[in-house]
Write a structure and sequence with these properties.
By secondary structure, this protein is α/β, with parallel strands linked by helices. The protein has one domain: Rossmann fold, CATH 3.40.50.1360. The strands form 2 sheets. The chain has a 7-stranded parallel sheet. A 3-stranded antiparallel sheet has the order 4-7-6. Helix 2 packs parallel to helix 3. The longest helix has 23 residues. The relative contact order is 0.19.
């Protein structure tokens, strides 16, 4: 796994704008080199704010949205269109405003589409397998960017400390009894996350400070799931000053005044 780099921005607003600019640049570069690109979205306040900033910047026109495969790292097992689904937030903030190819938008199955969360996980795993190419050497595509939020309890995606999903080798699993409502979810597992070329962990606010410190420690991923989320080529922690306040001296580079 790659050693993380840490970039610290002034506040949450600047952080969202900076991550949006970085995402547009990354997608344009990948598409220029390979034609298409694969991105994994995250929800939450900062994740959705990043997508809104992508929509707001004129630079989004440089992305070929019809050649972009869009995935999610986790999802709440709720009906289609429910306001708490990550897909719903992403569509309102960005996707409904861009000329995306709906065949390349891959939301996790909703509660009104499958009978159980387990069926939803199996269906999403099959969709990932179908998109993987021989040079991906596995069951999922080599995501070009996989974005993750960071919970105060150090969870990423819907991988909560100590839960069975952290021991899974399958790429997608159902989660029951999540400590954060709703209790039933779908999530990529750590092996699937680690296939990504780049993993970006995004956090803002003082409530995330302890989690950021632990995520950058040598803690094991069962106790600190965020410590196990790493990219094959690059891992970035993108934080605001409040989220970075507990990091040891010498960790992190101030990216904006």
């Amino acid at each position: 796994m790659t050693v993380p780099s840490v970039l610290v921005h002034r506040d949450q607003e600047v952080l969202a704008k900076a991550v949006a600019a970085r995402l547009v640049t990354r997608l344009v570069d990948v598409q220029s080199a390979r034609g298409g690109a694969h991105v994994v979205l995250t929800g939450g306040g900062v994740g959705t704010a990043v997508l809104a900033e992508v929509a707001a910047t004129p630079a989004h026109a440089a992305v070929d949205w019809e050649r972009l495969d869009i995935w999610w790292g986790d999802e709440r097992f709720l009906p289609t269109g429910h306001e708490e689904r990550n897909e719903t937030g992403a569509r309102a903030a960005l996707l409904d405003r861009m000329p995306v190819d709906e065949r390349r938008v891959h939301p996790m199955p909703a509660a009104d589409q499958v009978a159980t969360a387990e069926e939803g996980a199996e269906r999403y795993a099959a969709e990932l397998r179908a998109a993987a190419r021989p040079d991906d050497h596995g069951e999922v595509p080599s995501f070009d960017v996989l974005m993750l939020g960071l919970g105060p309890d150090v969870h990423v995606a819907s991988l909560f400390p100590g839960m069975p999903a952290l021991y899974e080798r399958r790429p997608v699993v159902a989660v029951h009894g999540a400590p954060k409502p709703p209790p039933t979810r779908l999530t990529l597992t750590l092996p699937a996350i680690r296939t990504a070329r780049e993993v970006w962990i995004i956090a803002a606010g003082e409530s995330k400070a302890k989690a950021a410190r632990l995520a950058l420690s040598d803690a094991g991923p069962v106790q600190v799931p965020a410590a196990g989320a790493r990219g094959r080529q690059r891992t970035l922690f993108l934080l605001d000053r409040a989220a970075a306040k507990e990091l040891p001296l010498g960790i992190g580079r101030l990216a904006s005044p």
